[in-house]
Amino acid sequence: MSYGHQNSQHEFPTESLPVAPPPARRPWYARKGFRIAAATTAITVTAATIAGIGVVHHLSNNVRSTAVDGLNSSPDMDGPLNILVVGSDERDGSIEAGDAEGRRSDSMMVVHLNAAHDKATGVQIPRDTMVTPPKGSAEYSSNPNQPIQINSLLEEGDSQLVAAVSDLTGMKLDHYVDVSFGGFISIVDSLGGIDMCLPEALNDPDANLKVQAGCHTLHGKDALAMARTRHAIGDGSDLARIGHQQSVMKAILKKADKDSVLSDPMKMFDILDKASSAITVDDGLKNPSDLTALLHAFATVERDHVDFEQLPVVPYPWDSNRVELSDEGAALLKTLQHS
Fold first, then answer.
1. Any alpha helices (H) in the chain, and if so which ranges?
2. What percent of the chain has pLDDT over 90?
3. Is the pLDDT of residue 75 over 60?
4. In angstroms, rounded to a whole number, what is the distance separating the alpha carbons of residues 174 and 115?
């Protein structure tokens, strides 16, 4: 929406007025209006730059960083980027730990930004995907030829999961981001909740989910439960849950668009400020300029150019509850590698 005003014009009997020669015009750089505008612009830009640096440093101090082996040591921020985003089930006291043992990746997504930086694709890797254990892992040392479930590798450390995802996808990963349950809750609550319409009631005690049919505004804990539920949907498999996770992510993007979050620095800062303490990134993103460049690269992608895909898989031959990469999945990954 544009705002403006119209000036009324008054006519004078100019024929009765003496005509004076126009005053000599000073150079454009000496005119008062230009000097004021230039000074104002310089002050504004300087203040914005200082504020921006302060904000980024503040967020950088909040975000935890960790050393992750196997990442691209010098990623080109102007070229294609691959970021592994992990939703970990590391509890922070706000969610019941249940009977889960060890650290697991509750969800995994390779986010690919193409070379032109005008399209982003998030490819979710089913947590039940079987992979060959990467070299250096305990599983490889004990039995290098025995495939394992990919989400179990996070218990051995971020580097082992990065190695396994790189081997599986054939993609060189540039950065690593781990969002805990608490971080997810903070993001949704900072948006004021997300809007979702359910055709039927969902009830899953294991995920702390109980929502009636109809349209609702789901706040942090309920949105997390919606993303995590397995037993309330479909056949209770991880593949059925991925569909719900993508619906939740789309709802987050839709709410961010509706509230103009990406174009409002204060709203964006509020969300990042509340969520940043529950986010862990690789050491390459602890540098404020790199973090800023990454955020800017993804924030400028039009929302209708952001896609979510589930990595195509087929049943694992030796265990019907597990899956493995399909030929269709391999083709998808190859396409992304060359975009």
1. 32-62, 138-142, 158-169, 181-190, 220-228, 238-258, 265-275, 288-299, 327-337
2. 22
3. yes
4. 13
